[in-house]
Amino acid sequence: MSTHLAAAIQMATSNDKAANLEKAEHLIRLAAARGAKLVGLPEVFNWRGKRSDEAEAAEGLDGATLTLMGRLARELEIHLLAGSITEHAPGEEKRYNTSVLLGPDGKRLAVYRKIHLFDVDLPGRVTIRESDGKIPGGEVVTAATPLGTVGLTVCYDLRFPELYRRLVFAGARILTIPSAFTFPTGEAHWEVLIRARAIENQCYVVVRTQRPRLQRLWQLDDRRSVGTRVGARFGE
Question: Going by DSSP bridges, is the β-strand pair 3-9/36-40 parallel, antiparallel, or unpaired?
Answer without folding.
Answer: parallel
